[in-house]
Amino acid sequence: MKETVEIFISEAELKTRIDELAFKINNDYKGETLHIICILKGSIFFTCELAKRLTVPVEIDFMQVSSYGDGTESSGQIKIIKDLDSPVTGKHIMIIEDILDSGRTLSRLIEYLKTKNPAGISVCTLLDKPSRREYPVKADYNGFEIEDRFVVGFGLDYAQRYRNLPYIGILNFEED
Ligand code: PRP
Q: What is the CATH number of the domain that holds 15?
């Protein structure tokens, strides 16, 4: 099988939309310090591009989690591969995701972060696939609502590859 990638959301479209999201976030968080949490690995590119455009004071931390293989209850535990480096008590935290799919990761992450008593929790995702949702979570900031397509690039992978593409592409499999 040969893999091909067709451009779905171009570099220019990503830039324009991230500009818009940052503008809104800067307005909404005026006067506050925003503690953003990049969810590894997929969110690294989006987090960097978004953070560069934020003008409110920003702190950045990273988490890596896995929510699979732990049963299907939304109240189930997440497996934390990398936890926060510093406490978030009393902070305005924003979870940065590359994609919101079933919502399982996010619902569990929110439950976990609530136990840390932040001042508030918001979610910013670059992509949202609402048709795939199994858990009732919503993003406060969403770059693009998309159909259920196999997307790669700008952080998103297929078998750990394609994350470095500067655009969002659709991965197609073709016979050799
Ligand atoms: C992806 C994505 C979200 C999650 C979304 O991460 O970054 O965290 O899946 O899916 P869900 O809404 O169905 O939970 P993934 O586990 O692929 O890890 P990665 O970011 O390291 O690629």
A: 3.40.50.2020
